[in-house]
Amino acid sequence: MSDPTGKEVWLAARPHGVPTAANFDIVDVPVPAPTDGHVLVRNQFFSVDPYMRGRMNAGKSYAPPYEVGAVMDGAAVGEVIASEDTSLPVGTTVLHNKGWREYATGPAAEFSPVDPDLTPSTSAYLGVLGGTGFTAYVGLLDIAEMREGDAVYVSAAAGAVGSVVGQIARLRGASRVIGSAGSDAKVSYLTDKLHFDAAFNYHSGPVAGQLAKAAPHGIDVFFDNVGGEQLEAAIASMNNYGRIAACGAISTYNDTEPTPGPRNMFQFVSRRLTMRGFLVFEHNDRRAAFLRDVSRWLREGVLRADETLIDGIEHSPAAFLAMMRGENTGKMVVRL
Amino acid sequence: MSDPTGKEVWLAARPHGVPTAANFDIVDVPVPAPTDGHVLVRNQFFSVDPYMRGRMNAGKSYAPPYEVGAVMDGAAVGEVIASEDTSLPVGTTVLHNKGWREYATGPAAEFSPVDPDLTPSTSAYLGVLGGTGFTAYVGLLDIAEMREGDAVYVSAAAGAVGSVVGQIARLRGASRVIGSAGSDAKVSYLTDKLHFDAAFNYHSGPVAGQLAKAAPHGIDVFFDNVGGEQLEAAIASMNNYGRIAACGAISTYNDTEPTPGPRNMFQFVSRRLTMRGFLVFEHNDRRAAFLRDVSRWLREGVLRADETLIDGIEHSPAAFLAMMRGENTGKMVVRL
């Protein structure tokens, strides 16, 4: 009998501007039996995230670039199906960083067991209980130092991070939660399902005017997932001592020219604003508090964890591209 | 005998863009004898500062606008020459906010006695021991949280605030102090007199390239007095966890169109930068520490407090305009 094979997604070529399917290869590779101390995992879900766009470029950033002609990686959840390490018996559900593939192998230490019974779907470990949820929690509470009574604005509010930011803001006593998104359906989702106080479609007009209308008393916190025009508009609506968590700038990741910056930076002085960028993996001291709070909110049914699931590794490049276009609601996850 | 008269500077008309002498009126006004509880002060020095440009515009900012056809105000030092309040006898040197005039009157509570023997000239209370020195101290140590070993870059480094920032950075153990200024003479002043490690003339080429050369290991702190191109260049040179104190944006104060913003805001995320604006008058809890440290450094002769003095109230509009063009070295002060 020949060795089993599994599919992986490789970076075929670095994109210039907006990536296309041609930037990805779906490749069949042998699936080796695990050696001593190693495990073999069948992935059930893997994550596609905005930060991966940066890794498709050459050049130094905070994460190493993907290599052309090699498998990409990222967060994934799977089940141990063969084990040569007693710490991870067959059947264990594990979270790890060998996504964009059907089968993952490696030393047991590279796989973390998770409780599959904590959530209806273990895909939650890629979203609300994973990196995007943790990003929302740290960015809102620690970086932007959100306090009870703050008016909070979040861009890309229907996305994986933004949808959690807005809900945590509400649960932590924000006076007003405002979000923007890229379709009227998402705007309805924000107000009807996530109970945002106000939301608007950034395609329907200049952000500054829509935000000013949605936040008649200004905003105290801005959680920026988008950059560009959103940032300038938020600065214009900031109250004194406002705080900005700089989380991402998805509007700019495909840009081939530098993005024009906010033309109102002097507001930082006159309104005593603070803006702080962060990378969530540097805040692991907050992980226990995050898991405690978010799992309680999930148990109590006060936090929604919506996902957009795309089935099949062969559709994962399309899932990534759709996520970059903002077609997901909640976390975009590839289901295998 | 007719009442004595004194000169005041009034706002004649609001400027559009760069102000000119036509925006100011020098007006003779009667000098009244002080009433009960009031004092009469002959001003010796008054301050002209960049923030006053904002007050020449209509519209809300953090300080109220000057009124057209009324005297301007600002920091001044003078001597009590008539007193109807026992707390401030004739001969007391006082700091107050009724500048842009030869004689100031008002309730004694509006005048603060200062020690004339602490410095060679009481004009220091308008500069290194006054608002600009305090701005440098708070901005560098509290807002930018400068720590020993940081590489510090300051724009408008030969100005009233910048010159103190660079010197405090050195005194507090910066690994490298870098400044930019608008003339080769000022660049020499920074390196030869203030002992900056590196300095450059921002007219001699793009700031980003000159800064990168002057700070081969990047910068940890940027103290921004200038805004515009300086801010973008500093962001580009920032090390991880770099901190920016947003103090002013003199390059933009005469702009009639919004200033283009930094095109590299994503660096806030990837390098985990923090930028914070501040207004020094909200940090009075730090005033005692500031006065203690700066007066000690002055006594020890390790801190220079250079000034550019312009004589005569009739030359005060020209002094202000020259300061806005960056023609001063150290604090620009009008001497009466």
Please, could you describe this protein's structure?
2 copies of one chain form a homodimer. Chain A has helices spanning 51-55, 131-143, 160-171, 184-193, 207-214, 229-237, 267-270, 287-300, 316-324; strands at residues 5-11, 24-30, 38-47, 76-83, 93-96, 103-107, 111-113, 151-154, 176-181, 198-201, 219-224, 238-246, 274-277, 307-311, 331-335. Chain A is an alpha/beta fold. In chain A, strands 3, 4, 5, 6, 7, 14 and 15 form a 7-stranded mixed β-sheet that branches. In chain A, strand 9 (176-181), helix 4 (184-193) and strand 10 form a beta-alpha-beta unit. The radius of gyration of chain A is 20 Å and the shape is globular. The two termini of chain A are 24 Å apart. The model of chain A has no long low-confidence stretch (mean pLDDT 95). Chain A binds chain B through residues 61-62, 227, 231-232, 246-249, 252, 258-279, 282, and chain B through 61-62, 227, 231-232, 246-249, 252, 258-279, 282. Strand 13 of chain A pairs antiparallel with strand 13 of chain B, so a sheet runs across the interface.
